[in-house]
Amino acid sequence: MIICLLWTALGVSAQNVSDITIPASGEKTLLNSGWYARRANEIRVDGNRLSASAFNPDGWMQARV
Can you give the pTM of this predicted structure? Predict the structure, then answer.
């Protein structure tokens, strides 16, 4: 079974992209929350379309990373 993970930037959608904080040079951003998982064979769009549109978590499971 292949699982696909998707990080949602803590629920950031196309409407509130300005809420994303870009770290300063040399700083780190932890990506340990905001992840969702779904079986790869259930995903009907490619990665470009999936990450470009507002994320709808219906059918996705919250994941711990």
Answer: 0.56
